[in-house]
Amino acid sequence: MSDGRAIETNPTRVSRRSLLKGAVAGAAGGHLLTMLDARQAPAQIKGTSLRMLVWSHYVPAYDVWFDTFCKLWGDKTGVKVRVDHIPHLELPARYAAEFAAGAGHDLIYFVGQILTGQYYRNLIDLSDVADGLGKKHGGWLESSKGACQVGGTWYAVPDFFISIPVLWRKDLFASIGMGEPKTWDDLRKAGGQLKAKGHPTGMQFSHCNDANHNWRALMYCFGAKETDPSGQNIAIDSKEMRESLKFGKALYDEGMTPEVFSWDDASDNRFLASGVASWIHDAISAFHSTRITNPKVFEQTFVVPEVAGPGGTWNVGEPNVWAIWKFSKNVAAAKEFITHLADNQKEAMEASLGYNMPFLRGQYAKPMPYLGKDAKLAKLQDQEKITAFLGYPGPMTPPAQEVVTTFIIPDMFTKVARGASIEDTMKWGVGEIRRIYAKHKAS
Amino acid sequence: MTQASPGGPPPPGSISVAIGGRVRDTSWWRTPTARRYLFGYTLLAPAVLYVGLLVGVPFAFSLYLAMSDASVGSPVARFVGIENFKSALENAVFYTAVRNTLVFTIGAGILKGLLGTTLAFLLLQPFKGRKVVRALLVIPFTLPIAVSVLGWKWMFDSQFSVINWALSRLSLIGGYGSPDWPVWLGQPALALFSVMFVNVWRGFPFSAIVLLAGLTSVPPEVLDAAKVDGASFLQRFRKVIVPMIAPILFIGSAFDTVFTLSDLSIVYLLTNGGPDGATEILPTLAYNTGIRGGALGRGAAISLFLFPLLLPAIVLLLRTLRRRQY
Question: Which fold has domain A16-162+318-365?
Fold first, then answer.
């Protein structure tokens, strides 16, 4: 855990990572100064201080940019800004502690687990900020509401979402006479044939974030739904869910090795970079890390936003959103900062190497920052049209989050892949999900 | 001699004493016995206060949470009785977690006992550099747990495991991708063994140090006498050493059991309870339900199931210890 991260200056040893960080920070610096001149902050926040708690971004260069952005904004507005970065898995425990103590950061950040539904009674109503930004930037994506609204009120404001596309090896696919994969069936076929050639595929069957995203992408593409759109009624006990489980098993049997049962969020990145993987389903951080660690493999690595299933094409993204505690000592500065960052989302996207996908429709004007300049990533410019979030088609409610944190969906796919019958697995999984929803309804 | 006071019977809590023909009322708390009690309790008070605040209050608070529908974001909770405990018992994963917790605690306890004892005897022998080895021994125990577990995570990596590469080089297993390539954190039995192994690696130096402290307190004359009487090593260990160091052994075992049973970090960092609950233990289930899932009441109830598991073991140990002392 690290608090109050210092901004690196004059590193004595230049590594690839620091070079990348430096380049991004340098390039962004000029833009930042221009942007900061463009907007005048309200005078009443001058002389105050703002403490914010954020995650450690998967793209380290983004954190460098973000810290510089905060510092420059603080200098310009006269606000003393302190940014605390901690790993995203530790955020829920920190929020529980801050809430219990009734003290902590002025501005907080939900990522991985969206806790808007849990804490909304203790969060500031941010409808003024969200509505203002929506009007200015062409409106919010519909999917953002599920992560930020409770009962139609904005208790959080979207920052960006992470998309999790398919990363595939063009040379390996070509070796079996296949081109760009269009469907899950294509991925299954390629996985099966390439495993025999020493190039298996893999998606996590373990208890990690990616497992929750990847198997849900398959489910949604097969037409399976977790709940109805209200998020109140479970809809997972369906023929489509059974079909997706059956397909998941085939995908594992034909194209994967048992190592997928042990993978964490970074294992597939290493799997791709090692040159073994034929394809993976992961955020583009894997794409960027392969660029640095294995340029030859990177040359042959391409990106598909998502592949289609019988139920359509759905990519499961990971939203990142801002919120403000009611006990925050500087609500005005926190709101001002959220607005300022959203206004400059294009710069943020550039700094994140195309990782941060905007929630505001107006920010999808092509060419998009970074993505529009990279031939391989350009396809992600329409990602907002196929993005769903955990709990789809319902909002990210507390029971939906508990289903996520207890890994019921990945465990269902794991059980079937390991040989359990689909009906037994459905009975177990649906039973667990029903139990969780019933408990939340009762409380 | 005691007399009734002229005005009627003495008030409760006081005694009347005749001194020099006069009767004087003396409160009980002024007697030497009372003063002795008062002095004793005053000395005991800081310890009672300390235990009460640091153990009693959190325990009472977790009991309150376990019997309420508290969630991380809801300041006002309703009393729900034993509903959360019933909910845990309806959860299939809970039974897996109980089983794994017992296997983890007992298995790790046995291994730590065996390795700790062996190591303690080895370190008792005179050899060059013994002091350095004794100092090095505590390294696993003193390293920050996150750092050491991260190291093990790399060693257990499915693709780049140094253990597997070494075994493969020694031709004990096939190469990467072969069917006998172990996936330490991916195969259910191996995954549970792996997390247990890391706990043993981290904990057995503690067992060895505790035993070493006990062993050095055994008078050599007693052991020599047993040797002269023809007792073998095992007989000396069982009939002489163990009875003499039993109090230390019991306290060490009690500490180790508590630490192992409530060990969240190793499993959380290595597998987070996966795959498919193969390494799910009560602390990870409680954390994921209560903190990450936000259901504080249900999380607290799951964690309180550790209490009945621990209580009999601790009571048994302490009773045995007391019997041996008197």
Answer: D-Maltodextrin-Binding Protein; domain 2 (3.40.190)
